[in-house]
Amino acid sequence: MPHRPDAGGPPVSSSITVRDLLTAREVALELELLTAGVPLDVHIGTPDVSSPGLALAGYTERFPDGRALVFGETEMSYLGTLDPQEAQARLAGVFARDVPAVFVTRGLDVPGHFLSAAARASIPVFRTGLDTGDFYRVLKPYLEDALAPTTTVHGSLADVYGIGLLFTGPSGIGKSECVLGLVARGHRLVADDVVLVSRRGNDVLMGKGHELQGFHMEIRGVGIIDVASMFGTRATRQRKRVEIIVDLETWDDSREYERTGLEREVTEILGVEIPRVTIPLNPGKNLAAISEVIAMNQLLAYSGVDVPTRFDDGLRKALNPRDSLIEDYE
Amino acid sequence: MPNRLGMHARPCAEFVKLAGGFSSSILVVRNEMRVNGKSIMGVLMLAAEKGSSLTITADGSDAEEAVAALANLVRAGFDE
Question: Domain count of chain B?
């Protein structure tokens, strides 16, 4: 497989503070801060969240340090069954660990001793009106999103027939012009020039533009244009999975280009391998049409049709009719 | 970044024009943003205000001249 240096820069460490949760507008966590005077600029380092169940019962050997804790009805009613001194000792044991924040769900009452123990350990306590299950469902994806490894890639990302094509290549090669051609044909711009790419799980890359940039792009000779106001809402998309890298380069006679599609090239971004198609440019090439073909080829691949391999199989059978006869009987 | 208005559109255009004259690849970094120094949208996205600091790196045969010329342009406040 031809070697190609990784695209994108080094991962940028994402981080989020407890304060960000309180001010997050994109999710409805319904948080109410119960502790006063506890610093909120504490970093949350992991998207994992847990409920302290067994730790409250005294088993702290496997306690997951660094996670935000969710106290639901189980935890709060369990604490209520203990005698007050015992309850305070158990809470103090849990709060002595590395806990960035505590959430109490269902709008439950939180006893004063609970709050003062947390405040002594500098742990902010929040109450949410959501029940525990719903709260997990809202908080987890939010944290995973905020803490996803992220990098910036110099390129342009477009949604072509639902496939995310990331165009890369040197400055001035025509990435923006290519995406403009696609937009004019009814496809959608995600980000031009600076693409923020983040990893979801182990194998998915999501791309989006920079907030400040919106859907502006530079067309050489014309200047900065706004695709959103020029082409309307159908021409833009906020974020898109990066599925194929289309690397544009000037035609190089000494280079071998892929001729059959049987060989697959990949580029690694944030540790995820993304299939890469290298398109050599020369005058008269219709990049938008080629890009549509790349996207449709991927749609075929998703539906289980691998055209080059199918073609090659047919050819092999034609070349060796006896082999295929044997195969048919097997 | 000495100039009062920071890197608004005109200084950014000056920057990428100068950068585009070099064959080296040029990277400009500010905090967590890393952008191509030859791309106007990229350099605009740095949103470098007065007093901010940029790191300019270049890779190629004329890398040293490129970094020196670009750093001079910024330090001179884009002659604004």
Answer: 1
Measure B33 CA to nearest chain A CA, in Å: 7
Closest residue of chain B to A192, computed from CA coordinates: B41
Domain that holds residue B45: 9-79
Decide if the complex's ipTM is over 0.85: no
Q: What is the CATH number of the domain that holds B62?
A: 3.30.1340.10
Domain assignment present for B47: yes
Q: Dihedral through CA A275, CA A207, CA A271, CA A176, nearest 10?
A: 50
* Domain-embedded: residue B1: no
| Catalytic option among A19, A97, A154, A239 | A154
| Catalytic, out of A175, A199, A237, A240 | A175
> Does A253 participate in catalysis according to the annotation?
no
Inter-chain residue contact B35 with A152, CB threshold 8 Å: yes
Alpha helices in B23-62 (DSSP H): 40-45
The token duo for A311 is 């073609």
Helix-strand-coil percent breakdown of chain A, rounded to 5? 35, 25, 40
The sign one gets for the Cα dihedral B43, B49, B54, B56 is: positive
A106 is catalytic: no
Contact between A107 and A140 under an 8 Å Cβ cutoff? The reply is no
Is B21 inside any structural domain? yes
Tens digit of pLDDT at every position of chain A (330 positions): 343 434 566 666 567 888 888 887 777 888 889 998 888 888 898 889 999 988 888 888 888 889 999 999 999 999 999 988 899 999 999 999 999 999 999 999 999 999 999 999 999 999 999 999 999 999 998 898 888 888 999 999 999 999 999 999 988 888 999 999 999 999 999 999 999 999 988 899 999 998 888 999 999 889 999 999 999 999 999 999 999 999 999 888 787 777 787 778 999 999 999 999 999 988 778 899 999 999 999 999 999 988 888 888 888 888 887 765 666 565
Which residue in chain A is spatially nearest to B22 when comparing CA positions? A171
